[in-house]
């Protein structure tokens, strides 16, 4: 006799890709705090994160809007080649910025594809991705802040000096036991 498992009311989530997205954006938040402490820039980056999530969730509209019918004349094709070459120079100049952006987009695309595979709608996917990305970036910002300015009421084992002193004491005790 087979036992029926109760069905969960919680929606299925692609946890591996969500954890990867969280770690990616947490690293981005950590680096963002290192790059600047200007909160206005953080707000602009939050807007860019929302825009990137929208691009990842609705890719077909963005791509067709950007390139739809642009190659119909030779003048437009020439303009596109010139813009492409200028873009290539900018890309090669700021290669680290573009690599970071591609990694962030790839993590978002992975979650978006997994959610689409599980049957999530575009609006629900967008909301989940935006909230997850913003939480991860905020966690990275806060983690870097705590790294630079640890609160004074933490237990002593949170500080690296404690561990170094402990290792030194253990090493001395171990060498004393070997000598006797």
From TrEMBL:
Transmembrane portions of the chain: 13-33, 40-58, 78-111, 123-147
Keywords: Membrane, Transmembrane, Transmembrane helix
Protein name listed in UniProt: Uncharacterized protein
């Amino acid at each position: 006799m087979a036992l029926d498992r109760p069905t969960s009311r919680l929606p299925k989530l692609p946890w591996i890709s969500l954890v990867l997205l969280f770690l990616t954006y947490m690293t981005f938040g950590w680096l963002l705090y290192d790059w600047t402490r200007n909160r206005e820039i953080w707000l602009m980056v939050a807007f860019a994160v929302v825009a990137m999530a929208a691009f990842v969730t609705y890719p077909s509209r963005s791509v067709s809007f950007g390139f739809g019918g642009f190659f119909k004349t030779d003048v437009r094709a020439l303009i596109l080649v010139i813009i492409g070459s200028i873009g290539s120079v900018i890309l090669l100049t700021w290669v680290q910025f573009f690599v970071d952006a591609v990694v962030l987009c790839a993590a978002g695309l992975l979650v978006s594809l997994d959610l689409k595979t599980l049957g999530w709608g575009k609006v629900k996917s967008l909301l989940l991705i935006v909230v997850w990305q913003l939480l991860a970036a905020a966690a990275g910002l806060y983690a870097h802040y705590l790294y630079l300015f640890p609160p004074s009421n933490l237990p002593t084992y949170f500080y690296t000096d404690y561990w170094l002193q402990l290792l030194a004491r253990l090493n001395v005790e171990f060498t004393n036991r070997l000598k006797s």
